Amino acid sequence: MTGGLSGPAIKPIAVHLVSRVYRGIARSTGTPIIGMGGIQFWQDAVEFILAGASAVAVGTALFVDPSTPNKICEGLDEYLQKIGMDRLKDLVGTLELPEEMPPPKTAYV
Ligand SMILES: Cc1cc2nc3c(=O)[nH]c(=O)nc-3n(C[C@H](O)[C@H](O)[C@H](O)COP(=O)(O)O)c2cc1C
Fold first, then answer.
1. Which of 2, 5, 6 has most ligand 1 atoms within 8 Å of its beta carbon, as the pocket-test mutant?
2. What is the model's pTM?
3. Which parts of 1-41 fold into alpha helices (H)?
4. Which of 12, 35, 82, 88 is the most buried (most CB within 10 A)?
5. What number does the ligand 1 atom closest to the CA of 11 have?
């Protein structure tokens, strides 16, 4: 029997993988990434977008609050206004890493 993990516990790994895929191939090819894994609040969505996601998806959080997507959209709107940015697109992949690190040797990639 097998099972899956979802929700906030997997978010660090999901954001990390989005960042790696974005820097590894998606940025140079213009391939959009849909970020998913543990997104519950608009701040979570921002993390994925900074890492390189062009859109985000929400799963588990819907069981806690079905209006999660609406709240995330409202939060993103307010955030963009606050930082003076017109388009969410301009935020995609803007995460600045201290240095370009070589890929870690891990079991999940
Ligand atoms: C109830 C439930 C059913 C799921 N069923 C599938 C599935 O059939 N196939 C699949 O690839 N992923 C499935 N997933 C995993 C989701 O596609 C996704 O990877 C995961 O939920 C991460 O996002 P979240 O943390 O926002 O839920 C399921 C997740 C949940 C919570």
1. 6
2. 0.89
3. 11-21, 27-29
4. 35
5. 25
